[in-house]
Specification:
By secondary structure, the protein is mainly beta. The chain has one domain. It has 1 helix and 5 strands; from the N terminus they run E-E-E-E-E-H. The longest helix has 4 residues. It is globular, with a radius of gyration of 13 Å. It starts with a strand and ends in a 13-residue tail after the last helix.
Length: about 60
């Protein structure tokens, strides 16, 4: 998994796995979900991230269980 935040475009992107993106849907305004050929979620993009995410420059990661 890879998380990037582009300060110039204000886009937060989360890639769940490396795969060719075959389709993208904007499920809600400003939230784009990318899918592979089989319909599996590949990534997620949040547009205008600084307005939608508390701190797009920070990341907290935890594994539980």
């Amino acid at each position: 998994m890879k998380v990037t935040y582009d300060t110039e475009t204000d886009v937060l992107r989360i890639l769940f796995r490396k795969a060719t993106i075959e389709e993208s849907d904007e499920e809600k305004p400003g939230v784009i979900i990318d899918y592979d050929r089989e319909g599996n979620v590949v990534g997620l993009e949040i547009l205008d991230a600084s307005k939608r995410v508390e701190n797009p420059r920070g990341l907290e990661y935890a594994v539980t269980g």
